[in-house]
Backbone:
């Protein structure tokens, strides 16, 4: 055991999307350290190389308005951009950005350089009277006033391909068992979830004549502001399965891990395996999308072909499609089963109800997706820092943001499968848009002071005028008649939002 025990206000366990956001947000408010088990896991996009999507893009815009880094990372590594639901109303339009995996990870490592990083692995977490002790694999120990746990899908994880079961969270990656000790020691209820990923293909072996190209759009704004450097654009490609593919999936579906009963955890409804869609909905023709993984990457991501079928079946299935007659598979599809805490074990601030000072964030809370994990990481990091300073925690209202909806559902709703944010569950979804995210989140950003000098605010001119209203000895107040402003003016909306900012604490 090490002779010296370092003391921090907040310690973040995990370096994925939730861990980075938690450490970045907490470090602005308190002395923070982040524990990284493997540098290659920092900001890693384990599944699809894309940020955003339906309801997710609004969540990322809200996060960016609060000082989160995911929006900046996505804009800085963009390779292909789509605007979804363009034919529908503004409230449901969504930005989806394909990113370069290596660039995204490099930018994530740049953020860690500004933080205190400890390269080690946590083997146990012990709650003391007024502090929390973390035991590390190297034999050293850390003390913290608050801890954010963001271990993702590595909690007692198992990887499945057909009948093959390997105790890892991802091929060639170690799993983490420290949370199981915590669950059993303090009686925290937990269960098993699963997620699947499709095969990666070598793009030089694909017959592109049998695919439909999907060119990138060039929108004016990204997640963090104007897109000034988005010049190199890559194509996505679409194709469909055929009757021969359907027949093979129908015949061999019984060999997948869920169908054989080897994989018992509940899977996401939005990322169901291609064989399950054949078994349950009898869909003969399914759309698949070939997505680039980066500018210099030889492999591509086959979105829609989530599977855990045996390797030989995956090869046979792919080669039924003309585009993949001679395809080379760089990485086979697989499923991962992992531990998550049950709904209700955390409150709306993401603090464990049974253990004060320990905050959970990311997929360990039962969510799925990079965006949901990053949002939880930011809130857990801010609340952990405020807890270490004996300040009240922040709880968001689901009426004013997707942030609040996410925290409400994770803390109160009984989850039977991995949770994904959905606009259908937002009571005021017509008002929760990407472009007004700063208007909605500004009071919370100012309350937490998590944006450095407010540089990430898109409408800086409105913010400057808004700051005048916040001065305690303000000499004048906004008079709509004097300035010719109607009640629907953006500035008046800011004033009204600030008056009701306390609702964010409920």
Residues:
């Amino acid at each position: 055991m090490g002779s010296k025990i370092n003391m921090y206000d907040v310690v973040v366990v995990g370096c994925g999307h939730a861990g980075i956001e938690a450490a970045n947000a907490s470090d602005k408010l308190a002395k923070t350290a982040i524990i990284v088990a493997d540098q290659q896991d920092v900001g890693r996009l384990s599944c699809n190389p894309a940020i955003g999507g339906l309801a997710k893009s609004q969540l990322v815009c809200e996060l960016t308005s609060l000082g989160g880094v995911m929006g900046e990372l996505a804009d800085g590594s963009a390779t292909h951009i789509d605007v979804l639901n363009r034919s529908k109303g503004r409230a449901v339009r969504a930005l989806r950005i394909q990113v370069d995996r290596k660039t995204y990870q490099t930018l994530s490592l740049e953020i860690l350089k500004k933080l205190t990083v400890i390269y080690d692995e946590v083997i146990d977490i012990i709650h003391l009277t007024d502090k929390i002790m973390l035991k590390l694999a190297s034999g050293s120990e850390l003390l913290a006033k608050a801890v954010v746990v963001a271990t993702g899908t590595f909690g007692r994880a198992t990887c499945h391909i057909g009948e093959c079961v390997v105790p890892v969270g991802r091929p060639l990656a170690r799993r983490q068992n420290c949370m199981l000790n915590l669950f059993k020691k303090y009686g925290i209820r937990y269960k098993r979830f699963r997620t699947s990923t499709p095969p990666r293909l070598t793009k030089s072996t694909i017959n592109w004549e049998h695919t439909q190209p999907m060119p990138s759009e060039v929108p004016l704004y990204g997640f963090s502001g104007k897109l000034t450097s988005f010049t190199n654009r890559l194509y996505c490609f679409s194709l469909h399965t055929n009757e021969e593919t359907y027949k093979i999936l129908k015949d061999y579906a019984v060999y997948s891990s869920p169908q054989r009963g080897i994989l018992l955890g509940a899977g996401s409804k939005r990322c169901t395996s291609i064989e399950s869609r054949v078994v349950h909905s009898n869909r003969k023709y399914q759309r698949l999308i070939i997505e680039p993984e980066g500018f210099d990457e030889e492999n591509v991501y086959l979105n829609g072909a989530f599977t855990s079928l045996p390797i030989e079946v995956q090869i046979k299935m792919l080669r039924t499609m003309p585009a993949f007659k001679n395809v080379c598979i760089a990485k086979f599809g697989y499923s991962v089963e992992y531990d998550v805490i049950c709904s209700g074990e955390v409150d709306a601030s993401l603090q464990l109800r049974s253990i004060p000072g320990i905050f959970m964030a990311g997929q360990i809370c039962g969510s799925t997706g990079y965006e949901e994990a990053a949002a939880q990481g930011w809130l857990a990091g801010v609340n952990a820092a405020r807890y270490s300073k004996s300040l009240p925690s922040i709880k968001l209202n689901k009426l004013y943001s997707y942030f609040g909806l996410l925290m409400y559902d994770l803390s109160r709703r009984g989850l039977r499968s991995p949770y994904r944010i959905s606009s259908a569950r937002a009571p005021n979804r017509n008002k929760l848009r990407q472009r007004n995210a700063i208007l909605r989140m500004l009071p919370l950003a100012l309350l937490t002071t998590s944006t450095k000098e407010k540089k990430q605010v898109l409408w800086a001119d409105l913010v400057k005028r808004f700051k005048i209203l916040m001065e305690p000895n303000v000499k004048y107040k906004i008079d709509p008649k004097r300035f010719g402003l109607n009640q629907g003016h953006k500035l008046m909306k800011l004033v009204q939002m600030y008056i009701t900012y306390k609702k964010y604490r409920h």
Q: What stands out?
A: The chain has a mean pLDDT of 82. The radius of gyration is 23 Å.
